[in-house]
Amino acid sequence: MSLLLKNISKIVTFNDENQILENQDIFIKDNQIHSIGKNITIDENVEVIDCSNLLAMPGFVNTHHHFYQTLFRGIDEVQEKPLFPWLVGLCEFWKHLNPEAVHYGALVAFTELLRTGCTTSMDHHYLFPNKTSNNLIDEQIKAASKIGMRFHAARGSISLGKSKGGLPPDSIIQNEDIILKDSERLINKYHDNSKFSMKRIALAPCSPFSVSKNLMIESQKLARKKGVMLHTHLAETKDEEDFCLNMYGKKPVDLMEEVEWIGSDVWFAHVIHVNDDEIKRLKGCGVSHCPSSNMKLSSGICPTTDLLNAGVKLSIAVDGSASNDGSNMWEEVRRSYLLNHLKYGNNGLNAYEILKCATRGGAEVLGRDDIGILSKNKAADIVLYDLKDIAYAGCHNPLVGLVTCGNSSLVKMTIVNGKVIVKDGTLTTLDENLVFEKANKIATTLVEYERKHRL
Questions:
Q1: How is residue 71 annotated by DSSP?
Q2: pLDDT at residue 43 above 80?
């Protein structure tokens, strides 16, 4: 399949030269960018799309999410609570999770992400209730293939239950041998390290307060043996820091060093409660900045500029929908910009730098150099924005407009792997209404079941 995007008003490439091109075309052949230039003409059969007055960028790369949580949004019992009480309360609902819920939760998340400019997402799925199937990651991968999104599935885990000093209830923990065996199964079955790969696997023990030190060590050994990346939550709250000091006599970053979780193959979610020395020690690692979640749970503000200056790779992510409560990547970009300026004032990151974190930065955090950039021989993951809405009137810099203006976060077009997946804000690969109806029914059943049996 070939596409010719004609007369694009601006192309923000995020290439090594930081080029922003004007009034040029992009020719897509199969799943990659074949060429970018003025007045491209193609002899072969090709679909031509007029992109006059549109702005093109690489798709956003979402580096931290919990898809299943799309089915547990707005639950009254857990509103207005910080992380630990929030988690404890939600686990009572989450323990009823099943494969169908995981599948449709993923479809909801993918749809929201794609419609707001995201072309690649990871998911950190760590919840495997005792009474359900072990093949929940498989359901996410099926959903990604069905909808057409580039996907990094992080096989999460919880092994340290309440009875052993952890935070989660024992009803959702797994045996560590089972976790490691399934992790290896998923890598062997699905991980594709080739250029333009649509699916990859990472290993992701949930957090320092929900897995044992042994599982952190064994997971990193397996990941490095198999050549896959590592991910976990880190330094999200002061509660986590207190837990690590009480359990291990170490702060979270010290613990990561002890279990050898430092390096270019590791990325962490949040990283809020760290000092200058700890930031320096994270050099080479990646960080997922999750502004909406951090604000809702009152966790704090990620030191984004300091991390970048220290050589840490920075990306932007939506986090789990039950703490956000949306999967809107465009909105996360805006909030990242505003929080950065709240913390750093006039020394904050500008609009271009924030957008670069959300695109090329996300690709680098996931260990990829084939996405996140618009140039020849890179993946045809392209998002087109229409800035002709009244909300952008009078804005003299379209990049600033993207970050600070707008009444909607629905994009004009999302192209993934050379295919148009979203057009005029609407999904082309699935019926959104059917996904909504099915997901809503499943969500209602799960939540009402817990409420009924709790009485």
A1: G
A2: no
Say if 2-58+373-424 and 60-365 have the same CATH topology.
no
**Per-residue CA distances from 348 to 276, 287, 312 (Å):** 17, 18, 16
What pLDDT score was predicted for residue 34?
97
Contact 94, 450 (CB under 8 A): no
Number of alpha helices (DSSP H) and beta strands (DSSP E) in the chain: 15, 17
Tell me, yes or no, if the pTM score tops 0.90: yes
**Cβ-based burial of 134 (10 A; exposed 0-12, middle 13-18, buried ≥19):** middle
**Three-class SS of residue 46?**
coil
Rounded Cα–Cα distance for residues 286 and 292 (Å): 19
Which value, to the nearest 10 degrees, does the dihedral of the CA atoms of residues 39, 40, 45, 49 take? -60
Tell me the C-alpha distance between 327 and 110, whole Å. Answer: 8
Pairing of strands 266-270, 419-423: unpaired
Place of tokens 């609009």: 351
Query: Which three-class secondary structure state does DSSP give residue 157?
Result: strand
**pLDDT interval class at 171 (50, 70, 90):** confident
Residue 12 belongs to what H/E stretch?
strand 2-12
Residue among 243, 245, 216 nearest 232 (CA): 216
Whether residue 23 contacts residue 48, with contact meaning beta carbons closer than 8 Å, is answered with no
Decide the pairing of beta strands 150-157 and 229-234: unpaired
User: Residue 389 and residue 386: Cα distance in Å, rounded?
Assistant: 7
Give the containing element (helix H, strand E) for 60: strand 60-62
**Predicted pLDDT of residue 374:** 98
SS3 content of the chain, % helix, strand, coil (to 5): 40, 20, 35
Those residues whose C-beta lies under 8 Å from the C-beta of residue 183, and which sit 6 or more positions away, are 155, 157, 203, 219, 222
**Residue 244, H or E segment:** helix 238-248
pLDDT at 455: 57
Tokens 């060429």 belong to 35
Q: Are 158 and 210 in contact (CB under 8 A)?
A: yes
What average pLDDT does this structure show over 13-41? 97
Residue 391: C-alpha distances to residues 53, 351, 388, 442 (Å): 15, 17, 8, 37
Given a contact cutoff of 8 angstroms between Cβ atoms, the answer to whether 322 and 73 are in contact is yes
Hey, where are the domains in the chain? 2-58+373-424, 60-365
Of 170, 284, 184, 173, nearest to 228 by C-alpha is 184
CATH superfamily to which 60-365 belongs: Metal-dependent hydrolases (3.20.20.140)
CB neighbour list of residue 341: distance below 8 Å, 6 or more residues apart: 348
Q: What's the CATH number for 2-58+373-424? A: 2.30.40.10
